[in-house]
Amino acid sequence: MKSAARLYAVQALFQMEASDQTMDAVREQFVEHRFGATYEGDQYAQGNIAHFETVIYEAVNQQALIDQMTDRALAKKWPIDRIDPTIRAIFRAAGAELVKQNTPPKVAISEYVDVTKAFFPEGREANFVNAVLDHMAREANPDAFAE
């Protein structure tokens, strides 16, 4: 159920940026109209609402820190504001979990690589996201990678 919450969090962060809606407005839309909803015979996953809310809250409130971490992981000529908005939302959602350290870093990376594959099933984006998130995770929690 956390996997669905992560996918919804990325969609919500994208929607907030694209439509300039508030976090509370988007959160309400997702909780009331996406989690477990049925549209035209298709059933949306229920997802973990508490995890969804934590991810978007942390992503919004820690955005400056997360964006700085992301920028350090990217090539100098490609800061986060030049990245595809969906990928940017993925970095922010994953960054929220990496900074908060409530999810093991390797789990967060794997989950958000899977989210990336849902949006970009045939592209190289998953490898790109994996590399950037690995860099961010090592910065946020170096002890998790010590052997």
TrEMBL record:
Keyword RNA-binding: yes
SUPFAM superfamilies reported for this sequence: NusB-like
UniProt protein name: N utilization substance protein B
InterPro entries associated with the record: NusB-like_sf, NusB_fam, NusB_RsmB_TIM44
Pfam families on file: NusB
Superkingdom, natural source: Bacteria
Gene label: nusB
Family assignment from sequence similarity: Belongs to the NusB family.
Domain NusB/RsmB/TIM44 intervals: 4-138
Record keywords, A-Z: RNA-binding, Transcription, Transcription antitermination, Transcription regulation
Spans through the membrane: none
